[in-house]
Amino acid sequence: MSLWEYANPKKFMDTTGPLVPWIVGAAALLMAVGLIWGFFLTPDDFRQGSTVRIVFLHVPSAMMAINIWVMMLVTSLIWLIRRHHVSALAAKAAAPIGLAMTVIALITGGLWGQPMWGTWWVWDPRLTSFLILCLFYIGYIALWQAIEDPDTAADLTAVLCLVGSVFALMSRYAVWFWSQGLHQGASLSLQSGERMAAAYRWPLYTCMVAFGLLFVALVLIATRTEIRARRIKALQTRARLREGAA
Amino acid sequence: MIALLGRDLRLAIRAGGGFGLGLAFFLILAVLVPLGVGPEPEVLGRIAPGVLWVGALLACLLSLDRIFALDWEDGSLDLLATAPIPMEGVVAVKAAAHWLTTGLPLTLVAPVLGVLMNLDAGAYGWLVLSLLLGTPALSVIGTFGAALTVGLRRGGLLLSLLVLPLYVPTLIYGASVVTRGAEGLSVGTPLALLAGITLGAAALLPFASAAAIRINLR
Amino acid sequence: MPDLGAYWLEVMASYVISLAILATLVVLIWRRSDRVRRELSETEARARRAERSDG
Prior knowledge:
- The complex is a heterotrimer.
- By secondary structure, chain A is mostly helical.
- Chain A has one domain (20-180, 196-245).
- Chain A has six helices and no strands.
- In chain A, helix 3 (85-117) packs antiparallel against helix 4.
- The longest helix of chain A has 48 residues, at 198-245.
- Residues 189-194 of chain A have low confidence and may be disordered.
- In chain B, 84% of the residues lie in helices and 0% in strands.
- The radius of gyration of chain B is 18 Å and the shape is elongated.
- Chain C is an all-alpha fold.
- Chain C has one domain (5-54).
- Chain C has one helix and no strands.
- Chain C is rod-shaped, with a radius of gyration of 23 Å.
- The model of chain C has no long low-confidence stretch (mean pLDDT 81).
- The interface between A and C is large, with 39 and 35 residues.
């Protein structure tokens, strides 16, 4: 039994099929719990006032925006090295979700920044890096849509994802060099758990897990859709060949 | 490879296309920006490094889709793929030819446009040096973008969308060399990083571009 | 409903916009999944019919 068995589309479909409703349910439940907890049941911060509640959307979506890109990088590498179609399709399925997460992180960040920093947008390193990440997602999705042949599209987007990752990382450091920012450091880190009061920490953890599960659920559904679409194409080709022969 | 370089250079100059167009675009930009932001010398001088770098970058972008397009259409790219030189070499030569026909002329006219933009006197040397070091990276990265989109009918717009985010680090370091040079600060760090990006891109990206071309020719 | 004080607009807008984006994403993925699933069962049925008629 190895992980690579799930590279077989049939096996992937059979295994994930029964899992999807459970993951969807868990994601919906945790999302409801985390956001209701965060929105209704947390106290105002003594400096940020009620805007502290935006954190429960902002931090998880920002975290997922980066994690999804990393996931796309890994699946692209698996596709390039081992040629498993499921892997390429998972990368394709993940990209729009990553873009949505990036946009949420940017919008909530702006809405939080307006009362706190007095401006919707500053050219701060973190904000700028996210805007650039947003552009990378758009380019990646556009390349997938532009190429007709599925294998060529998978190959070229995988190459773009690899090169793009290197440049995204370089951009991040370049942007740090370019401007020292307003943005506070990481809201959560393993060493300094006491940075954030417990009243906010637990709903935030709940939301982070919820966003993670939501992503897993959506990416599984979308990957299954892509596999089905691929099968439709294969069946249609076979039907056309049969007609040609007849 | 030398022959291929010569052929590409001759084609670029004879066909006119990218060669004059990029320069004209750069010039127009340097005229339009002062018309847009107003003629105050201090304002222009402050934004000059950034505007000149962005202008050079966009001018570079204009001719990118011509790197492989003609060879793809008339089938010479297939011939090159079966030629004894490796695809990586072909790609590197293409990037070099692109730089010689766009990056280098842009670098040479940049000081003239610097006058129009009221660039600080101390910054001219840094402007030329940073463009000289940075534009090869623009050509190499652009060649990668062109290789990705070579088979597409309307690749031009997609090409800009793919390539511009990749230009971010080069732009940041390049423009900050000039800005710091104008203010008389030390420019060692951004200059070294700019050179690092160019060398790294020139060393590694041809492999990615060649892979993309091979996938497209499959 | 908690008292959101002076910043109620920003907080409400964040939640509304984010949830709207997530909902759109979920609906889009769901609808495409449904459509493709239906198309696949139709295509498979047609393929089976064709195979039988070939017999």
